[in-house]
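Good day; I would like, with your permission, to put a structural problem before you. What I wish to show you is a protein chain and, alongside it, a tokenised description of its three-dimensional fold. Here, with my thanks, is the record as I have it:
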Amino acid sequence: MTATTVDERLLETSPLRKLLSRPELGSVVGAIAVFVFFALVADGFLRAASLSTVLYASSTIGIMAVPVALLMIGGEFDLSAGVMVTSSALVSSMFSYQMTANTWVGVGVSLLVTLAIGAFNGIMLTRTKLPSFIITLGTFLMLTGINLGFTKLIDGTVSTKSIADMEGFESARDVFASTLTIGDVDFKITILWWIGLVALASWILLRTRAGNWIFAVGGNQDAARAVGVPVTKTKIGLYMGVGFGAWISGQHLLFSYDVVQSGEGVGNELIYIIAAVIGGCLITGGYGSAVGSAVGAFIFGMTSKGIVFAEWNPDWFKFFLGAMLLLATLLNAWVRKRAEATK
């Protein structure tokens, strides 16, 4: 008697198995735990205005965490992501001011520059075969020096001139840094940018051929190339995606405060990476989701603002950050083992 072999792709999958296979499951459990914790210990945490503040803090991290998560799923890092945000704001501000141009011209030039920086990282990575850690560390140092050097050379100080009275400023602020009022609660427009990026990234990952390429190059680059996946184009595109996120964050920074400090952004790249890891992205690549990065950013936002609402010493923030990273990593590993055990 011959045993019948059934294609496992045709097997029905139980709802429990589908749930356990989701990369963001561990971070969702962690987010619920953090939410309940601060709801109990921090007075006013559940107020609508407080939750709006939490969402704003989460969105400023989440806008960058989304493209960083996609890059990590593709198996790479970008240590220049935090400084690139400041570079984006500086280029937009200084170009508009020095050229006395409409601020939208500076915004457009900034987009081209940040996409070019992302393309530079991707091309250097694919051409030299060096680890992304080395490539983007070099870019991080160069951008840090350029931001400070050019700002002092052109403006004479470490901050840019105010562009608040220039043509196009108000309309650009409406797009990148305005506030929407719903009922009696104010919501920053960055929350909409964040939600839009999560939806777009999820569609790319789950519904397009490019999404399959991202998972493939992160899982096994050589095998992906062998079956025809355009590895070089995929990785360059992922780095340009980080540049696009940096452009949005940089314009929000500029049009929120009129001026930009050239030394800002250093260290934020680690926050974006940690948010992606907490959200279920594997450091080794090939696994993760955009929704998970959003949940990771939300945990960051709840923790940073929850400590303030609880009136604790903010010096302990880094301790909670480290503890969350360890717990999230252990929880994700446990969830994956449970998912594999149910197969």
Summary: The CA atoms of residues 201 and 207 lie 10 Å apart. The longest strand covers residues 179-182. Strands lie at 179-182, 185-188.
